[in-house]
Amino acid sequence: MEPVLRIDDLCVGFHVRDRVVNIINHVSLHIGENEVLGLIGETGCGKSVTGSAVLRLLPDNAVVAGQIDYRGKALLPMSEHEFNRLRGAKIVSVPQSPSTSLNPMMTVGMQVEECLTRRPDYSKKAQQVPVRERVQQIFERLRLNERGKIFRKYPCELSGGMCQRVLISMGAITNADLIVVDEPTKAVDWILRAGVVDVLRKMKEDYRCAMMMITHDIGVARALSNRIAVMYAGEIVETGTAGQVLDHPQHPYTADLISALPENGFHVTEGFMPSFEEMPAACRYQDRCAHCVEACRSGKPEMHETEPGHFVYCHRCRGE
Ligand SMILES: Nc1ncnc2c1ncn2[C@@H]1O[C@H](COP(=O)(O)OP(=O)(O)OP(=O)(O)O)[C@@H](O)[C@H]1O
Ligand SMILES: [Mg+2]
Known about the structure:
Blueprint (H helix, E strand, L loop, with lengths): L4 E12 L2 E13 L4 E5 L6 H8 L7 E9 L2 E2 L5 H7 L4 E4 L3 H4 L6 H10 L13 H11 L5 H5 L8 H14 L4 E5 L7 H18 L2 E6 L2 H7 L2 E6 L2 E7 H6 L4 H8 L34 H5 L4 E5 L2 E4 L7
Parallel strand pairs: 3-8, 3-9, 6-7, 7-8
Antiparallel strand pairs: 1-2, 1-4, 4-5, 9-10, 10-12, 11-12
Helix pairs in contact: 4-5, 4-7, 5-7, 7-8
The protein binds adenosine-5'-triphosphate and magnesium ion.
């Protein structure tokens, strides 16, 4: 069956000063019907840039190549007018930064309400529950308590975590088909984190939508994702089911990421991700990898399917 989203060979670079710095390097991913794909990886690896490419929200200095298809339709060549009919209706984003994503001049309740009422296909009569009541219900579920009061608050009157939940409410209110959620638990504490996971799970169940879940939080990725893609320095290094990737990681980077979790003893790998301006031509993890061999420094790895549905981008999988 055709996936809801298919990304093929995506490359994204940015014009910086007098050159183009390549960030996303030949990324291919797909998300099936009612599937959550968790996109994980350390800060600055290119998760948000990938999400923004799908939503065509990259800044003007971006250079994009490759193919992004939504239900078989190529998104990149679409006119802005055509794409705007999908964005906000069928393809919805829950962005990473609440402070820059909410309108400071408008109450948060109205902003969530407008996500629905401004859609070209909105019909008041078709609503089984009045829109305002739906907003209130979603707020309640997200523990944005004091029902009516939160609706009438302005973003500056709410904490970062509350604004984050307002953004999630915007995704929840539309009957979206594909939702790109960027760091949904970034500004929330551990109790609210459970609430956010619950709401996102409910969103998936109620709307049967597909989701790209961008997160640092491996616990959230595990709780919500059917499949996981691990990104390192702009490349996908491992994909598979959540169980395959998180319980039986095959790429040394994924294994290191999991070892660094508090529950696994905080074994943090030394070194930093290379700068995008000086990326090694061969394996990008070579300098930090405990299993690095000569082949890792001389040539690019290939994607290997180590078991059905489990893909790993590493020379070791060829037995080197
Ligand atoms: N407009 C831009 N111009 C130049 N470089 C950019 C631009 N936007 C993003 N980048 C660079 O792209 C890289 C990836 O950024 P991105 O925001 O996708 O990371 P991320 O994986 O989402 O990180 P985080 O987990 O911290 O949100 C970073 O090095 C960033 O500096
Ligand atoms: Mg990000």
